[in-house]
Write a structure and sequence with these properties.
Elements (H helix, E strand, L loop, with lengths): L6 H8 L5 E3 L2 E5 L4 E2 L2 H11 L5 H14 L10 E3 L4 E3 L5 E2 L22 H10 L4 H13 L9 E6 L12 H12 L4 E3 L19 E4 L9 H12 L3 E3 L7 E3 L4 E6 L9 H4 L2 E6 L10 H4 L3 H21 L5 H14 L1 H8 L4 H4 L4 H15 L6 H11 L3 E6 L7 E6 H4 L2
Helix pairs in contact: 1-3, 2-3, 5-10
Amino acid sequence: MSRRNLQPHVNRLLGKHRACVAGGVLYVWDGSRHVQDERAIGRLLSRMDHSLTRADRAEIIATVENLAPEVDLADPHYVRLIDCVLDLATGETFEPTPDLVIPNVIPHAWDPAARDARVEAFLDSISSGCPATLALIEEMLGAALYRGRAPYIWVIVGIAPVRGGDAANGKSTLCSVAELLVGVENAIELDVHDLGRNFMTASLRGALLEVSSDTSSDPVPAASISILKKVPTQDMITADVKYSTPVRFKPYATVVIAANRVPGFIVDAGLKRRVRVIPLRGHFEERAVDYASALADEGCMSALLVHAVNGLRRLLERGPTRSGDGDAALGSIAALSNTVSQWADDRSLSASGLDGRACAAAYRDYADWCGDSGTTALPKAEFEREVRATIPGLEVRKCRCNGSSPTRRWKSVESSGK
């Protein structure tokens, strides 16, 4: 400790304020909720003692972080609202307590009977009256309230014809409303292309919602794809923090991507099965209602919470609602992005045509084709899986050809059986 005796402040955070560490993060009870970032804990310390310097606060926090007991976060079925804790399993509510560590507070009150005509008009307009699209919107909003493992990435796309270069289908509005619902403190806006960049990844820690709006279809760096895969499955992430030591945490943010068309990068083998497309059919004129502002009052948010909670319960019970338009949009981009299929078609390749060809040589030809066509080549292992799926009747065997040393080659099943 410094020459000034800071131990009483340490003891107070450990005692009265029930400091604890959960998932590698320090939490302190401020009297009504758990706070976690250094700035919030620093404000609490300043209220305790105005004479504390920045260095004093940093030293106290570092000491408490080393001494605080490790605990588990509260069950994700407990959703903390501004006036209560809601148990999703039973629908019951109760007062928050320091023993129940729930990092995120949804800044709205819970009223299961809440209903507002403006909310109904918004949902009907944004979904174009389609029950499946409405259900998906409710499920996406509900997932954003949930700290548990809901392994989906939500992609919002417009499927109506684009007029005058402006899609105007409500993507940005829906993203803004989702941020209003969870609260700005619980949401981050970060383009998926930047997820793996230095000092960017750490912003996912403790976030309920990650929004990437107006996402381009440009190739996403491998580092960002790696992070994007880990978020829905809550795999441990190590992230750099500027001017501090790296942090390790399990993310629980719901990823929402808005784009004019389903981005090609989602066909990555580790992402495609996680993606759920929310198709927006509408086109809104400039004079249309500004729902992002119109819904910003507490009555609307409480009514929207009811839709979100119903959607979350449905999502947890039976998975996301199926949408024919959403599945078609996802399927079409998968077909357009299947570079192996396009390569094989362009080269007029069949099982007999690849029979006996060295796997390494075939991959080099594929990678060259991708370079010439301006697309990104799959990694070698994924390429071989896609070849088997695209050209039935092939297998890989290590064998000689024309007296050469044994090497991995494509062999047609028919010729291998002879």
